[in-house]
Amino acid sequence: xxxIHVISEPNGGGAELLVRELNSRLNAEGVVSRVVYLTNPRxxxxxxxxxxxxxxxxxxxxAGILLRQFILRSFDRDLxxxxxxxxxxxxxxxxxxxKRVRLVHTEHNTHNRRRDIALLRPIERRIYARFDxxxxxxxxxxDTLANWIGTGLDRERLVTIPNGARLFAxxxxxxxxxDECGLTIISIGSLSRQKGFDISxxxxxxxxxxxxxxxxxxxxxxxxLLEARVRDLGLADVVDMVGWQDNxxxxxxxxxxxxxxxxxxxxxxVAIEALSTGLPIVASDVSGLGDILRGCEAVDLVSPVExxxxxxxxxxxxxxxxxxxxxxxxxxxxxxxxxxxxSMADAxxxxxxxxx
Length: 356
Description:
Elements: E1 2-7, H1 14-28, E2 32-39, E3 50-55, H2 63-74, E4 79-84, H3 86-94, E5 102-107, H4 121-129, E6 133-136, H5 139-149, E7 158-160, E8 183-188, H6 197-206, E9 211-217, H7 223-232, E10 239-243, H8 248-253, E11 257-260, H9 269-276, E12 281-284, H10 289-293, E13 299-302, H11 307-318, H12 322-336, H13 341-355
Parallel strand pairs: 1-2, 1-4, 2-3, 4-5, 5-6, 6-7, 8-9, 8-11, 9-10, 11-12, 12-13
């Protein structure tokens, strides 16, 4: 059995990271796994078990045909084709495959733009019905997808496998790093409406006397809007938008607190990575993200889209003493260890076995 993951490109957000980590773990455990990327716009170096079709955009109408030709020409054993995100979902679903091929899709978010178009709903029911199994990365993703599909799919095909995350080393210092100038706060994610950084900027402005530096790690189409927001709020001397960074563990080590102000979220991989370093979090209590963080003492879950509420959470955190911070750090690490990459890979391997 060979597992073929199909995703648009190797770089991006949590879904792309999950695919690369899952592929690596499966191969390490003796499962033959490969990844096929439709595009590789940043020319990211690929591993020996990763391939690209060489297209300039996943919207290229040749993508489906080239994908099918490449897979069937390159791999001659029983196959499980595993799609991720929108374009691979559609290409894999509509293409004709031999009977020996099994199809799996992972749903990575609680919301997408397709669900804003009511006319797509009956089409999507047929698309998802093509798959032998659909993996949801959280209970929130499971519930929202089941609601979108309605009665058009056997619900037993929907399974929940929580993401695994990279666990970084705990920070060396145990006390709050803030000095008399204030806290260093960090957010990580794509610069998009989903991630809600316009909300966190407004919150930082309201709690400005407590904040020395607010670092936003990420890139995206909303950069110019957020830069304008920084200027309008008078935060140019506080906010650093540093773009995409590879050494996420190091950036997490610079901070006292993380903000995750997402409007919606399928899982929140960066939250688990942050907790693994002992970093406390203020996060939106939205489906998916709230599912994995609820019950962790190091996380302050707040109502989404309300800068005032986030600002008050920053104030609460700033009032904690060193002993309380040490306690939060310990609880953060313990919670992160629930979501290991090994457990995730084992769950996927077991799923693949049931399909063959």
